[in-house]
TrEMBL record:
It comes from the Bacteria. One of its GO terms (molecular function) is transmembrane transporter activity. PANTHER family: MAJOR FACILITATOR SUPERFAMILY TRANSPORTER, SHIKIMATE TRANSPORTER. Gene3D superfamilies: MFS general substrate transporter like domains. It comes from Pedobacter duraquae. It is a multi-pass membrane protein. This is Putative MFS family arabinose efflux permease. GO terms for cellular component: plasma membrane.
Length: 510
């Protein structure tokens, strides 16, 4: 084979696989990126904080079913092939995302709205459970054995790329139609757009050929007759499945979802940052960090996968609490003095009389000398004779000074850098653990349990823990820190830094 032709072929494979996978991640993540707004549409207006927690629970449901999708579509992938299986997952994902954009709000159909969205999220989760394993396996089975880390790391960029695309479309749509229209109906546009993206990806994937290793296996009549049984009933293989889960993907999952999703949720909902600021910070962090997926993936071909992944977990364990404490400290405007204030807008005053008492709300925009600003909402309860019973002030929609903004970008970049360390090498690591005939099934399950259950629950569990009486805003971080620490210990003791040898070669090496 002409080496240059082989190289061009593998990049065509990567391009076709990555586009579809990126779109599936986009479809899956726009829901999480819009959790606050969607919660207001799916639940009663007086639901308060429970609307966000319930919406995050629906978001998490899509992660919980991913392992079942891994079993269903992994089995299909090992029986009929990689190509047609992840074509099916793409159709299911795109159709579900499009339909979410059409679901009426709670005000129109009541609790049927969140139930219908939950059903579609479950379909999304099942589809994603079959997508990633297929794409990673497909690319790995086209790649030279000694460069699997490098070539599969391109697939790894698609998860963060899908998040970047979802954030970009959301911010662009909101800025074009305005905040009020976006909250009312414009949030549906990113969901509806996905049908166009999926159509393009299906067209490209239809032109792909089956992986050479699976084709060879099929021609020789060696395709597994029962991938599930071979994956999980054989003691040696099941041991590798468990080791992959508890020593690698479990820790990798919580690092991924803390560094990207929980970071955004924390900045928006705990620190009360402006909608655009919280997303711009994440967008810049993604832009700066994304190349490191390929860097760490390629490096793992030279030094092994294990210690790169475990180092990412260890750094998260050490630095998460200090980073999130900085987020809190630098967005705490409660101690500002008159000298810090540059201007205050004329307050918009609303008055509501209830049982002789008056609730007076004063809303104004405060601009600080350093360029930061926030919306101040002061609430006073007065009796009929003018006595003030209580007074509270809420600061929201905070915009950071330029210096603090780029400081936050740096902190989010560091978190996503840890994501690239644990995520860049992991596709090659999982592919190499299992033989070709049961690879799709065997690698998909630990990946989607680790990411879907342990990782995907980070925003929901951490937010829920932080809402318990007596907790602090940082209490929720003990969940990802604890999971990462457990995975680090198991991986350090039991994982090997050597590639298993299944006696397989790829078409690229022949």
């Amino acid at each position: 084979m002409n080496p240059e032709s082989g190289k061009n072929n593998i990049f065509k494979v990567i391009g076709a696989s990555s586009l579809g996978t990126l779109i599936e991640w986009y479809d899956f993540y726009i829901f999480g990126s819009l959790a606050t707004i969607i919660g207001a549409q799916l639940f009663p207006a007086d639901a308060g904080a429970s609307a966000l927690i319930n919406t995050l629970a629906i978001f998490a449901a899509g992660f919980i079913v991913r392992p079942f999708g891994a079993l269903v579509f992994g089995r299909l992938g090992d029986l009929i092939g990689r190509k047609y299986t992840f074509l099916l997952t793409l159709v299911l994902m795109g159709g579900s995302t499009f339909l979410i954009g059409l679901i009426p709000s709670y005000s129109s159909i009541g609790y049927a709205a969140p139930l219908l969205v939950l059903l579609l999220r479950l379909v999304q989760g099942l589809a994603l459970g079959g997508e990633y394993g297929g794409a990673a396996t497909y690319v790995a089975e086209h790649a030279p054995v000694n460069r699997r880390g490098y070539f599969t790391s391109w697939i790894q960029t698609t998860a963060t790329g899908g998040l970047f695309l979802s954030l970009g479309v959301i911010v662009l749509t909101k800025n074009l139609i305005g905040a009020s229209d976006f909250a009312a109906w414009g949030w549906r546009i990113p969901f509806l757009l996905s049908i166009l993206l999926v159509g393009v990806s299906i067209y490209i994937r239809m032109k792909m050929h089956e992986s050479p290793m699976f084709t060879k296996l099929k021609a020789e009549g060696k395709v597994s007759k029962n991938p599930l049984k071979e994956s999980f009933s054989k003691k040696a293989n099941f041991k590798m499945v468990l080791l992959a889960l508890f020593g690698a993907t479990m820790g990798q999952g919580v690092i991924w979802y803390t560094g990207q999703f929980y970071a955004q949720s924390f900045l928006e909902n705990t620190c009360k940052l402006d909608f655009n600021d919280s997303r711009y910070i994440l967008l810049w962090g993604i832009v700066f960090a994304t190349p490191f997926f390929v860097i760490f993936g390629s490096w793992s071909d030279k030094v092994g996968r294990k210690w790169i992944m475990l180092s990412g977990m260890l750094l998260g364990i050490i630095f998460y609490r200090p980073i999130y404490q900085i987020f809190l400290d630098d967005t705490d405007f409660s101690q500002i003095t008159q000298q810090d204030v540059k201007s205050v807008s004329v307050p918009v005053i609303a008055k509501e009389v209830q049982a002789g008492d008056s609730l007076i709300t004063q809303k104004s925009t405060v601009v600080l000398v350093n360029g930061a600003s926030f919306t101040s909402i002061k609430s006073l309860t007065k009796t009929a004779n003018g006595k003030v019973l209580d007074s509270t002030e809420l600061m929201k929609d905070k915009k950071l000074s330029t210096t603090t903004f780029w400081k936050f970008v740096g902190l989010v970049f560091f978190q996503i850098l840890l994501v690239t360390m644990v995520y860049g090498p992991i596709a090659a690591f999982l592919v190499e653990l299992f033989p070709t005939k049961i690879r799709y099934t065997s690698m998909s399950l630990p990946y989607h349990v680790g990411n879907g259950v342990f990782g995907g629950l980070v925003p929901f569990v951490a937010t829920l823990i932080a809402s318990f009486p007596g907790s602090t805003p940082l209490t929720g971080l003990w969940y990802p820190i604890g999971i990462a620490a457990l995975s680090f210990v198991i991986g350090a003791i039991y994982l090997s830094n050597q590639k298993p040898d299944h006696g397989e070669i790829t078409e690229s090496n022949t």
